[in-house]
Structure formats: C-alpha cells, structure tokens
Amino acid sequence: MTYLLFHLTFILPPLILLLALARPKPPRLWAYLLMPLIALAYTTPWDNYLVWRGVWGYPEERILLRLGYVPLEEYLFFCLQPLLTGAFLFRIAGHPPKARGGWIRWVGGGIWLLASALGVLLVALDGPYLYLGLILAYFSPVFLLQWTFGGDLLVAWYRPLLLGTIVPTMYLWAADFWAITQENIWWISEAYTLGVKAWGLPIEEMLFFLFTNLAVVQGILLAWHPEALRRLR
C-alpha cells in the first residue's frame, strides 16, 4: 500500500460519509475550512525538521514525491486530518453553552506553560527524548494560547471537546498501526523514542495524534463560540 492509497482507504471514505451526514452550513463552515490551512502552515516546518533529523521517515517506493524533506502525501494529510476531525465535530457539537469559571483559563494556561518548558528540556536532552520533546515544545504553546483565551469555554463545552478528540484519535491510532506494522508506509526511529509502546504504537506517536486532534477540536470550538468572538472584538 502506498501513502496515497492509505488516504484513499482510511481518510477519504469516512470524511465523505461524515460530510454527507453533517451537511455543514455557514457560519460554522468558515472555521472548518480555515483549519486545514492553519494546520498546514504550522505543522510544515516541524515535520520537515523531524524527517531531516530521522525521527521518522518514508520508504521511497511508498510515496510519489518530496517537497523539502516531506512527501506530498504528508502535506495532504495535514489538510485531511483537520477536515476529518472537524467533520465529526459537526455531528456532535450542538449549541455552545454559557461559560463559567474564568479561573480555569489561567489554570489550564499554567499547565500548558509547564508542558512547553518540559518539551524544551527534552529537546535539549536529545536522543530518546527528542520525539516526545518536539511534540510538547511545538504543540503545548498552541494549547497555552487556546486555554488562556478560552479555557472556560472549552470546559463548558466538554462533551464535544472530549468526544471530538478521542474518537478521531482512536481511529487514527488504528490506521497508523496498520500503516506502520502491516504496510511499512512510514517508520518511527527507535533512537529518538523512549521505546514504550501501547497497542503496538510508540507512545510518542499516540501523543502526536492526540495533540494534533486536540488542537483542531479546541480551535474549531473556540471559533464557533459566540463568546470567543466577542472576546476577539
């Protein structure tokens, strides 16, 4: 199986089905369509660095071509994953609840600030801590901004926050397991991971999908909440 066939098998069918069921309409549609562009712009330098360092890679026979260090299909995944996760979110989000407990914003922000610092420390240690450190150092600042801005809104909207993150993440864990163990579409370096696995996947790889989906879900929910728009104004 090639990387492109992986998209055609695991990503596009559920995406098309969810969009057909959800039938997204404005005003929520604009944030949904903007998210893949944000994900592509933010993740591209990070992913190129990981491939350059040899944290993960792709057999040449599984990809079409490379743009920089990263295959074309990987850039396509940066766009498809937010669309898939967002399409599921359309089905479960419902109406935004009223926010309570503004202190949650600062507690959440503090937690993600510590996670950011831990990520920088792990990157400095290099070796088996590198992949985990790069995940924490690159994505925790995003969560820091999201929670200091609207953590109370996210907690109030806890059901779509949890389901919208967990369900797509578990699906992508299964697809990732198949891609690595059965099809060798990409590989993860043992030299830059801790060697701890769950359900056949390195914990860093599992955390990657969890964090990327969490960033998408939180970003879309904040964009959909009227109070977040009022705060921006």
UniProtKB/TrEMBL annotation:
Transmembrane region(s): 6-22, 29-46, 75-94, 106-124, 130-149, 161-180, 206-224
Pfam families xref list: Lycopene_cyc
Gene Ontology molecular functions: intramolecular lyase activity; lycopene beta cyclase activity
Alphabetical list of InterPro entries matching this protein: Lycopene_cyclase_dom (IPR017825)
Keywords from the UniProt entry: Carotenoid biosynthesis, Isomerase, Membrane, Transmembrane, Transmembrane helix
Source domain of life: Bacteria
GO biological process: carotenoid biosynthetic process
Protein name according to UniProt: Lycopene cyclase domain-containing protein
Species assigned in the record: Thermus scotoductus
Record lineage: Bacteria, Thermotogati, Deinococcota, Deinococci, Thermales
